[in-house]
Amino acid sequence: MSGLAHYLEDAGLATVIVALVREHIVQMRPPRALWVPYELGRPFGAPDDTGLQRRVLQAALALLDRTDSTPLLVDFDEEAPFAEGDPDWRFPGALDSNNPLAEAASVMPVWQLARERIGKTSVGISGLSPETAVEFIERFEGDAPMPNPKGMAPMSRARFAIDDIKAFYLESAMAEGGHPSSRQLQDWFWNETLAGALVREFQERARVSDNANLRLIASSLVPAERTIAFIEGRG
Amino acid sequence: MVRLVDVPEPERTVIADLDCPAYSDTPAVTPVAATDRHVAILSTAGFIVRGERPMLANETGYRAIDDNVADGDVLCSHVSVNFDRTGFQQDLNVMLPRARLAELEQGGVIGKAAGTHYAFMGATGPSRLEDKAREVGRSMLALGVNTVVLAPV
Predict the structure, then answer these.
(1) How does DSSP classify residue A225?
(2) Tens of pLDDT, residues A170-182
(3) Residue pairs spanning A and B at CB distance below 8 A
(4) d(CA B38, CA B145)
(5) Distance (Å) from the C-alpha of residue A102 to the closest C-alpha of chain B?
(6) Rounded to whole angstroms, how far apart are CA atoms A59 and A206?
(7) What would the pLDDT profile of A16-43 be if each residue is shown by its tens digit?
């Protein structure tokens, strides 16, 4: 991101970065940066906290009013709310734990509620429905793989099908709102669902596969700390 | 989890050891007055519009997100799985605060919120993005943009 700032300034645009990794800013010296103390993936603080998002944005833009010499790095010291999560949070539905497809079907009505509450969904990047995405991964490279629709290479389809599975479950987990932390949600998905186990096992097979294309996507499936290889000390 | 020391291993070491290119100087444009600012947001979340081909690892191109694209049609195709997406799944503005920017325009804090914002694929070596960064810069200038908020994930 700091590199982009240099190129855009060089082109004649004034820039300011909302930075998550302070150490990188110190090394790369972009003209102006506001460091925010938020987790990776949340540069503007917290979802649906319009006040905090606006304060971060205004603090960043305010750096453009400073007359100090650049590079300018300022810390934003307002913590995100609910960072500790909600100990009372529970998945707002009953999972059918017979098999991954049955589990996905049991999540579907909860996801519909979540879509209504949130007003949108980020599921859909693979072009498969959530349940089809689960089946696609279950059967991938098995004896009877599902046909891959036109428009996307099979490995990319698998990678984005997994993105969709995760989004499907995690959006469902937020169907009733509340303030679970991202860690709570991730703990639930990876430790308590068959879908999490399916994806983790798929990742491990991909990691050691003879298929170079499959190995290429292995690092884009499961957070590094939650892979089987890392947990077992082999990654 | 809010600071690098709080990022779990092994990702913390990956981030800490990331090769950051050195830049010989820090070019700084003299910003225009706040009320003259025409502001665009540039994200490295690998955003695409629903139905577009997702961005792939190390891709150096960029995508434009026009204001008429609904929040639910902005998807994240970033290659990394080591950052939170649950905030984005609830509210696009936690990554791409275009609604907040529009409010700043309405409140007279800035001159104008851009009608188009942009996204690159993060986790791509910065020097590999130079050509496309300069290209997107020219596009912004052609649209009258003079200020860019850069938002990593």
Answers:
(1) G
(2) 999 999 999 999 9
(3) 277
(4) 5
(5) 24
(6) 44
(7) 999 999 988 888 889 999 999 999 999 9
